[in-house]
UniProtKB/TrEMBL annotation:
Residues 24-357 form the Fumarate lyase N-terminal domain. It comes from the Eukaryota. PROSITE patterns: FUMARATE_LYASES. Its EC number is 4.2.1.2. Keywords: Lyase. This is fumarate hydratase. Belongs to the class-II fumarase/aspartase family. Fumarase subfamily. HAMAP family: FumaraseC (MF_00743). Residues 422-474 form the Fumarase C C-terminal domain. It comes from Danaus plexippus plexippus.
Length: 477
């Protein structure tokens, strides 16, 4: 029942209503669909504020989960009129409408089981369903957040199920498109550059030649393997804890509930979710999340290497390697006119570093499943959400950098001619020691390999030209 208490928010008066939970009554803003348990969490966990809100994909996943449960529960006695109202309310959650309107204010830093976010979802769906049915907000009639929206469920099985749904959808819709787009571009660049011979580098020092295409083929293959690594984690990610309720036994559910919910969620998402074969594992441990996180950590390692290589190969334009030319997207300095920086490389490497740091937190969280429940759930899924920003990073890097990479052929050829490591081609003809003498003498005296070899009387000009040809140094034919 609404009361006369008012709250000043952003300069406007907000009417309040009274809602009750098992701890007593609390004032709830009358323009919000959440209830007393949500308000209590806001009061008890003032950590970080709006920027630390529970990630949007998790709330969408809860909407999908609650919708599936409501539909299945009609088979076990839930009134169809109530179920239909719950389903309609869930659609408002799934669309993002209620998240954008501020009905999900809770932060990541709460109970590690996600109980408050589960109840936030239950309260919002309950009150929205009450609105649909013409009832009074906060009355819990005719739709109760626990008895109806949370029927046959517990926070301990719904939150891990929502974690898996959210991450699986984000991997499919956000990460994979970015990875595939960048991988495909790198493969195209590999073919585009396949005839450009350049000097290789090991230990950051000059090495023997390879083609620029071969160098880029390594980058493309790293991402191909990264995509495959993610795919190998999916069977475990597709197992849902829903149906395990409090400790994994399935207390207060009905036979077949878990299987039917998983099937319904699979239909709603287009992802082949299944009920977890062992609910005790699904509640007490989140090894599958650590596994996915590990694959994403490996991808971050790959992206760090690729982006660093590209920005170093493009260093210059006059005083660096300058073998590559990157798109010029924006001014690079507020004081140095004309300066342009490899900003897309920098953004991607910073994102990769964040992912690596998050992996440590996720690993610690996964290792702290005590007895029948892991209570690091909210942190783990929030970190996972950040990891999936890798997809956004790959899209930006692909569009604003990789597609426009050009080879600076004149600079590549210049560096090639100056390299001392072409002397390696002489090993089969004159032996390692004489070849080393040529290289070291040329470096000490500032001469060329050819002139030094002739001066030392080791080779004739004709022999050098016959044996030292970069195009013949690309491996077995």
């Amino acid at each position: 029942m609404a009361c006369s208490t008012c709250l000043e928010q952003s300069g406007k008066t907000v009417k309040m209503r009274k809602e009750r939970d098992t701890f007593g009554e609390l004032d709830v803003p009358d323009d919000r669909l959440y209830g007393a348990q949500t308000v209590r969490s806001v009061m008890n966990f003032p950590i970080g504020g709006i920027e630390e809100r529970m990630p949007y994909p998790v709330i969408v996943a809860f909407g999908i989960l609650k919708k599936a449960a409501a539909k299945v529960n009609t088979e076990y006695g839930l009134d169809k009129k109530i179920a239909d109202a719950i389903i309609e309310a869930c659609d408002d959650v799934i669309s993002g409408k209620l998240y954008r309107e501020g009905h999900f204010p809770l932060v990541i830093w709460q109970t590690g089981s996600g109980t408050q976010s589960n109840m936030n979802t239950n309260e919002v769906i309950s009150n929205r369903a009450i609105q649909i049915l013409g009832g009074k907000l906060g009355s819990k009639t005719p739709v109760h957040p626990n008895d109806h929206v949370n029927k046959s469920q517990s926070s301990n099985d719904t939150y891990p199920a929502a974690m898996h749904i959210a991450v699986a959808m984000e991997l499919r819709d956000r990460l994979m498109p970015g990875l595939v787009a960048l991988r495909d571009t790198l493969e195209k660049k590999s073919k585009e550059f396949e005839k450009i011979i350049k000097i290789g580098r090991t230990h950051l020092m000059d090495a023997v030649p390879l083609t620029l295409g071969q160098e880029f083929s390594g980058y493309a293959t790293q991402l191909t393997y990264g995509i495959e690594r993610v795919c190998t984690t999916l069977p475990r990610l597709h197992y849902l804890a829903l149906g395990g309720t409090a400790v994994g036994t399935g207390l207060n559910t009905r036979k077949g509930f878990a299987e039917k919910c998983a099937k319904e969620i699979a239909t709603l998402t287009g992802i082949p979710f299944e009920t977890a074969p062992n609910k005790f594992e699904a509640l007490a441990a989140h090894d599958s999340m650590v596994e996915v996180h590990g694959a994403l950590n490996t991808i971050a390692v790959s992206l760090m290497k690729i982006a660093n290589d590209i920005r170093m190969l493009a260093s210059g334009p006059r005083c660096g390697l300058a073998e590559l030319m990157l798109p010029e997207n924006e001014p690079g300095s507020s004081i140095m006119p004309g300066k342009v920086n490899p900003t897309q490389c920098e953004a991607l490497t910073m994102l990769a570093a964040q992912v690596m740091g998050n992996h440590v937190a996720c690993t610690i969280g996964g290792s702290n499943g005590h007895f029948e429940l892991n209570v690091f759930k909210t942190m783990m899924v929030a970190n996972m959400y950040t990891q999936i920003f890798l997809g956004d990073g790959c899209q930006a890097f692909n569009k604003n950098c990789a597609v426009g990479i050009q080879a600076n052929i004149a600079q590549i050829n210049k560096i090639m001619k100056e390299s001392l490591m072409l002397v390696t081609a002489l090993n089969p003809h004159i032996g390692y020691d004489k070849a080393a003498l040529i290289a070291k003498t040329a470096h000490k005296e500032g001469g060329t390999l050819k002139d030094t070899a002739i001066k030392l009387g080791i080779l004739t000009a004709e022999q050098f030209d016959q044996w030292v040809r970069p195009e013949d140094m690309l491996g077995p034919k």
